[in-house]
């Protein structure tokens, strides 16, 4: 701990009186990130400790990252924000260094692995209406946010630039498959895997069927590629990759959503699947283990605005699982003119609702809303558990 110890000549004082400095450092390292600002006001000594490399290295070594929800909301100056579950606080993240400033980034994937947030691939399109004729440019770039040092860094790029692709984490590795490129309009069959310990991408066998606009799901140690076209008569299959076999398998689709619905699915525990079927109202469905049938758990309650008499159904929200709870984040509602004139206003939401899906009927609670200007449609959402 040389970097945080002060010499006797400079007026050494212990971090916490009565405790050895190594034990005091461990005590402070267990405190949630959300309290750092408060802790730094205690004394200059504590501020120096919290900003030291020893503090950061200890948290990294022990894996004391805390529990986080990382969320990206819509807007010209789109900025990631993070919810610290332990401190019940939202924190804006630094802006991602971009090679395409002034361009809209969409179609990317975001996952958490090894206590880091990764933002992978996607496409860039110009925000300037005068450049609307330009086609989106897919990227293979990968950036990483480290909550220990609160910085973004560039990682090795994917071998294939892609957007709107499947992505998930299985056994500490990141798998990507399918998606779009600027030249392939029918979707990709190409797949690859990222090893964080080596910062290296490797090609995988291609999928039997190309997929675009797809979602990746880690389930029971396998990669599931779910198409946004599921439910369509001619596209009713999903692809499953078994890393231990190194092979893809095509299975008949069993997912209860289609292109018209909210496309989100998450896993609680080891094998409890939850999805939102957004058809008129937002219903929570679940499937347990190897069962093929989905059952209703309950619904996401409608939104009530203080200046509007009727309940409103949200859309464009985020859906994630954290600490065995389901979170519904942000979104929008159409606030209709109650005079009957047929006019409406789009209202962006910052609220966050949470429930324990194992307790039926569902008991939804409001937790701390996102900090403005973060609100509206959710472009990216990922949960990180310690």
UniProtKB/TrEMBL annotation:
Keywords for the protein's UniProt record, in alphabetical order: Kelch repeat, Repeat
One Pfam family recorded for the sequence: F-box
Ranges of residues in domain FKB95-like N-terminal Kelch: 91-299
Stated name of the protein: Uncharacterized protein
Keyword Repeat: yes
Domain F-box residues, every copy: 17-54
Gene3D superfamilies, per the entry: Kelch-type beta propeller
Organism placement in taxonomy: Eukaryota, Viridiplantae, Streptophyta, Embryophyta, Tracheophyta
Native organism: Protea cynaroides
């Amino acid at each position: 701990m040389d970097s945080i110890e002060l010499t006797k000549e400079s007026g050494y004082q212990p971090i916490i009186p009565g405790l050895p400095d190594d034990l005091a450092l461990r005590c402070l390292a267990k405190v949630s990130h959300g309290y750092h600002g408060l802790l730094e006001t205690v004394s200059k000594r504590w501020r120096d400790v919290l900003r030291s490399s020893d503090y950061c290295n200890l948290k990294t070594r022990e894996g004391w990252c805390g529990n986080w929800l990382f969320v990206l909301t819509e807007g010209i100056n789109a900025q990631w924000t993070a919810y610290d579950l332990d401190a019940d606080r939202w924190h804006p993240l630094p802006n991602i260094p971009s090679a395409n400033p002034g361009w809209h980034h969409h179609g990317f994937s975001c996952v958490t692995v090894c206590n880091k947030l990764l933002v992978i691939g996607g496409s860039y399109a110009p925000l300037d209406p005068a450049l609307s004729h330009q086609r989106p440019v897919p990227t293979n770039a990968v950036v990483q946010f480290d909550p220990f040092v609160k910085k973004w860094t560039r990682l090795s790029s994917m071998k294939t630039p892609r957007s709107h692709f499947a992505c998930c984490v299985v056994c500490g590795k990141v798998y990507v498959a399918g998606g779009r490129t600027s030249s392939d309009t029918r979707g990709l069959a190409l797949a690859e895997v990222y090893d964080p310990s080596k910062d290296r991408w490797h090609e995988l066998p291609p999928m039997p069927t190309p997929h675009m606009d797809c979602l990746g799901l880690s389930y029971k140690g396998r990669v599931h590629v779910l198409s946004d076209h599921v439910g369509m008569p001619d596209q009713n299959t999903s692809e499953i990759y078994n890393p231990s076999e190194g092979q893809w398998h095509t299975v008949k689709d069993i997912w209860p959503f289609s292109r018209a619905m909210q496309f989100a699915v998450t896993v609680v525990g080891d094998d409890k699947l939850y999805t939102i079927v957004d058809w008129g109202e937002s219903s929570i469905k679940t499937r347990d283990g190897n069962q093929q049938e989905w059952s209703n758990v309950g619904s996401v309650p409608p939104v009530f605005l203080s200046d509007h008499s009727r309940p409103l159904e949200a859309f464009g929200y985020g859906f994630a699982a954290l600490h065995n709870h389901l979170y519904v984040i942000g979104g929008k509602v159409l606030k209709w003119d109650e005079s009957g004139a047929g006019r409406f206003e789009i209202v962006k939401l910052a609220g966050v609702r949470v429930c324990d899906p194992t307790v039926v009927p569902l008991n939804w609670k409001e937790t701390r809303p996102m900090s403005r200007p973060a609100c509206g449609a959710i472009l990216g959402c990922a949960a990180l558990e310690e």
